[in-house]
Each structure stands twice: as structure tokens, then as C-alpha cells.
Model the fold of this input.
Amino acid sequence: MDIILLFKSIVGLVVILGLLVLALLFSKKRQKKEQEKVKKRAQEAQRAVEDAHSFEKLSAIIKQKASTTQTLQEALALIIQYHPKIEAVDVYMNLVFHLCRHKNTNKKMIIQFISDLEKNNPEYKKEINDAMMRGLNSRGV
Done:
């Protein structure tokens, strides 16, 4: 009788141990799935931020005649923050030209943007100044 009781106890302990192992495996699977979901959401959020700060969208804000001084300042700050290096000279020079011609821009904004561009791209200093002069000269027309 002692052996039967001992055997039943061992079987019961093995069953409990098996259930605990299964619970541990399922919790790890669930935790891994949740980590993947969090990672996926973070990647989607990063893509959304990158899309919102794309050079094309920011330059479109500057080219819009209805943009306010505040939105222009924000767009210029984001361009300097996310796109400080000139990759396509013509695109940036066109942007400087439109900035200088914009009705809601001011000299402080232009000077700050030009100095930041020149600081980040000293090799394009002449082109930046030429685009600024073209924009400022055409502003009075």
C-alpha cells in the first residue's frame, strides 16, 4: 500500500511538473508575440515619422504660398535636422529660391537657414549664395 501511494504521488508530481512546463512554454510564446507586435508598431511609427519628415513634403510646405511664418520655420528646422547634407544641388537651390520669394518669410529665417546650410555643406557655399541672391532679387519684381 505504501508503494501504491508513493507511485500515485510521483505520477501526480510529474503531471504537475508537466503542466508547469507547458504553462512556461506558452507564456514565453505569448511574450515573444507581444515583443514582435511592439517592435512592429515601433517600426510603423518610425516609418510614419520618416514619411512626415520627407524632404519632398517639407519642401512642398515651403513652396506653398499659403504657408504661415510658423509653418515655414518648422519646415526649415526639420529640413536642417533630417536633411542637413545637400544631395541634389538643384533641388536645394530651388528650395532656397522659393524660400527667398515666399511672402511670409523674413530675413532672420532666411539668414538662419542659409547659415545652417553653409555650415553643413561648405563645398556648396557659392551655389547657396547665388540661389539666395536670385530669390531676393526676384522678390521685388
Residues 1-51 form one domain. The chain has a mean pLDDT of 86. The two ends are 110 Å apart (CA to CA).
